[in-house]
Amino acid sequence: MNFIAEALNLPPSSARRLEERNIVRPALINHPFFPDILEAYCLGKKFGEFEEGILVVRTENASIIVRGYPKIRRALTLYPTVKRRFKGDVVIEEKMNGYNVRIVNFGENIYAVTRRGFICPYTTEKARESFNPDFFKGFPEFMLCCEAVGEESPFVPKKIYGIKGIDFFVFDIRDMRTNIALPLNIKMSLSEEYGFKIAPVLSETEAEKAHEKIKSIILELGARGREGVVIKDPQMKVEPLKYTSSQSNCGDLNYAFRYFNEYAKDFMLSRIVREAFQSFEFEEDEEELRKRCLRLGEAILIPIIRSIEDVSKGNKVVEEHRLKFRNLEVLELFKEHLRRMGIDANYSEPEIEDGYHILKFERYMKSTADKISHLVKGNVW
Ligand code: ATP
Ligand code: MG
Q1: Is residue 140 assigned to a domain?
Q2: What pTM value is reported for the model?
Q3: Domain-embedded: residue 370
Q4: Nearest to 148 by CA among 163, 132, 133
Q5: Into how many domains does the chain fold?
Q6: Does 330 reside within a domain?
Q7: Nearest ligand to the C-alpha atom of residue 173
Q8: Which amino acid residue places its CA nearest to atom 13 of ligand 1?
Q9: In this predicted model, what pLDDT tens digit does every residue of 155-172 receive, in sequence order?
């Protein structure tokens, strides 16, 4: 605890509050796979200036903090929100749909930190295979903020990117202590130099007129099932904005309604509201509006009906995953990691395929299943 307060430079009174509020969580499972770390903790809530998901690590010769990835605010209408926030040019990047990972280096190795500040064994194993470690020899204080996407994502499995395993797309390079982001042109040149994939840059345009351009990009991305865009200041001095396609809003709803009792009502309401603002702004004709209504209605009802069918046939409501590991011990670590994150799952015995250990698991959505089962037996809501 002491080293956390010290690393964060907290006065004794704040350090006490940190302890009392019980927001410090162990961020890793000690194991030789993480040889450079003596202790690691993360914050489960925002604390003063520190974001949720900040990580504090003690290595043999230093205490290191890795700041949380900042929240990105959302535009509900493109006009006038974009031109009000930005002056001059904006860069429009694709918002990729996976999970947020910060790649950092401690001692001799690369580590992958997920959004809430945990060091993830699976993602770390994959990151060590993907990233050129020379980058951190030159820039030990930087973190690579990326989206991890692909079919073998333990959190957000997606087929739309055509990535069978998991791949990392860098979207920001930040100083891990101050959270200051490099200007986008430097991010791009460093990524090119070290062979990192980046989130696609779709356009650079004047903020004044960006709403038209973004609208056409969003329609095109949506038609391909892609999530949306993040609108950024080229210098990264102004905080970015995000905006998503209707297909992505509906994709979220589809997921949330299948597991409706695990998801907060806010999650669902906010996505429905987004659809309304988009429809309003895009001045849709009757046919386009009808299509949107159908898409939204299907996204809400069809998944719930499927869940009710599953439960009434005596099946569980599950989400299926398949991951591959080089190292069997990392596979076991990852199971323990999920357990600590409160994820309830049913694991198959690992199988070997092409030199990898394959882990299949079903994430059990107990709350939704119990609710449905209760109702179909004749109980009242
Ligand atoms: P938050 O709004 O707190 O950032 P969230 O999980 O609710 O988190 P999302 O709606 O997924 O947020 O949008 C923000 C996330 O988008 C980022 O945390 C990042 O993981 C992801 N992302 C994907 N592509 C980009 C990109 N090009 N630039 C920035 N973030 C991106
Ligand atoms: Mg996301």
Answers
A1: yes
A2: 0.96
A3: no
A4: 163
A5: 1
A6: no
A7: 1
A8: 72
A9: 988 999 999 999 999 999
